[in-house]
Amino acid sequence: MSLLAGKTGIVFGVANKRSIAWAIAQAWAREGAKLAFTYQGERLKDNVEELAGTFGADTLILSCDVTKDEDIARVFAEVGAKFGKLNLLLHSVAFAPKDALEGEFVNTSREAYRIAHDVSAYSLVALARAAAPLMTDGGSIVAMSYYGAEKVVPHYNVMGVAKASLEASTRYLAYDLGPKKIRVNCISAGPVNTLAARGIAGFTDMLKHYEAHSPLKRNVLPEELGATGVFLASDGAAAMTGQVLYVDSGYQIMGM
Ligand code: 0WE
């Protein structure tokens, strides 16, 4: 089936083949979407070129630091020139300085708090503003969130506060962009073993915890996040905006 035939999209946040962004990009492409990709920094350039290159040599692959307004302007100018219009945008970008994810939240420095919010939350606002003029026949913007936005997950710390901001920003963007038929939603994913999760103390125990305590008694598969990404991008979700969809084996409903 080609749920996204004739649609164009841009994907922010592919780091390697395990990235959630890559799982959603593959699912979007499988449904017929034509995609552009951005990467952050030379370190990830080769990875993204190798992965995105599988969609053809003319795939648009651009460098973008989402904290730089000039980068964002350049990326959307190039996407406008190449595609003419845009339907889909995936935001799968987050960063907090490592020490802010290790100690106590109460010790979060002003700078770590600022960086986490700039990279992980404000970037959605900046990208949505730049994308909107290209979304001339409506659009779907999808951002990735996590349960730590609404409940305390030890050590998630300032990232939880930034994800709360991301989710609230999703609602305000949905209100502003709704009249242009641009929908904005979040997927709140259960833990997935990605580059962003690697090196986080106790991550393996967290995967075991979801296996033991989620209603479905298992962890989420990247391809399941891809399928939800397709749903949100498709007309199946045409009347959904400003929402947070939990794709977490049901973990979020539990009280104990
Ligand atoms: O949003 C995330 C992680 C995002 C992330 C990861 C890193 C690691 C490397 C943001 N910034 C950094 N900074 C680094 O220096 N997740 C949902 C995955 C995650 O991260 C956790 C989790 C979970 C789940 C951190 C502590 C506790 C749980």
Quick summary:
This protein is α/β, with parallel strands linked by helices and 256 residues long.
Task: Give an overview of the whole structure.
With 256 residues, this protein is of the alpha/beta class. It has helices spanning 20-30, 42-52, 69-83, 110-131, 157-177, 203-213, 222-233; strands spanning 8-12, 34-39, 60-63, 88-91, 139-145, 182-189, 244-247. A 7-stranded parallel sheet has the order 3-2-1-4-5-6-7, with helices on both faces. Strand 1 (8-12), helix 1 and strand 2 (34-39) form a beta-alpha-beta unit. Helix 3 (69-83) runs parallel beside helix 4 (110-131) and helix 4 (110-131) packs parallel to helix 5 (157-177). The model has no long low-confidence stretch (mean pLDDT 97). Bound molecules: ligand 0WE.
Q: Give the topology string: H per helix, E per strand.
A: EHEHEHEHEHEHHE
Q: What's the arrangement of strands in the largest beta sheet?
A: 3-2-1-4-5-6-7
Are any ligands bound, and if so which?
Answer: ligand 0WE
Helicity level, as a percent range? 40-55%
CATH superfamily: NAD(P)-binding Rossmann-like Domain
| Cα distance spanning the termini | 40 Å
Number of helical stretches of at least 4 residues: 7
Q: What is the name of the CATH architecture?
A: 3-Layer(aba) Sandwich
- Rounded mean pLDDT score: 97
Would you identify the regions where 5 or more consecutive residues have pLDDT less than 50?
none
- Assembly status: single chain
Choose one word for the global shape: globular
Strand fraction equals: 5-15%
CATH topology heading:
Rossmann fold
Rg, rounded, reads 17 Å
Biggest sheet descriptor? 7 strands, parallel
Number of strands: 7
Domain count, please report it: 1
